[in-house]
Amino acid sequence: MSKIIGLTGGISVGKTMVANLFREHQVLVIDLDEIVHDLEDNNEQLINEIAKEFGPGVLSNNKIDRKALGRIVFGNHFKLKKLTNIINPYLLREINQQLTGDLVILDAPTLFENALYNFVDEIIMVTCDQLIQLKRLINRNQISISKANLLINSQWPSMIKQQLSDYVIDSTFGIDSLEKQVNQLLNKLR
Fold this sequence. Notes:
- The chain is of the alpha/beta class.
- It has a single domain, classed as 3-Layer(aba) Sandwich (Rossmann fold), CATH 3.40.50.300.
- Helix content is 55%, strand content 16%.
- The chain is built from nine helices and seven strands; from the N terminus they run E-H-E-H-H-E-E-H-H-E-E-H-H-H-E-H.
- Helix 1 crosses helix 9 and helix 2 crosses helix 5.
- The longest helix has 22 residues.
């Protein structure tokens, strides 16, 4: 039986760096965004369910057009919840097929928003200074401050996620600090 750890955090807080550090320690990391993208590109049944619910405008070359779908669900809690309810059964099946080893990290940016916290044994929240997060997002996505703030504010507030998490990793101080925090946490988790 695998111990399943949810790894979450807001956009551009360093969650991918933390996931990569776990991989370097030979911990299986399952990237839920990758699974969802693969399902939206290749699972005909899921694609049909999404198109039936949100209309044929969300399709492009028989795959889900994530930008078109995003325009429909972004900022609309009711529609986003409908999408989550359609995707989650497929997602959970895929996760269960990939579970191997004693310790598994589920890299899940929207762990709380998509109600996947019930599926994990413990939760790690990655956070960083808000100004650093904003700068990282602006530089990474080449977007304006207002667009970056909109993306950050579309997710659950960091403080709420921290209160609901078992562990918090702070990426504010760079990779050396992250490596130390991940090593300490691995000793607790194993």
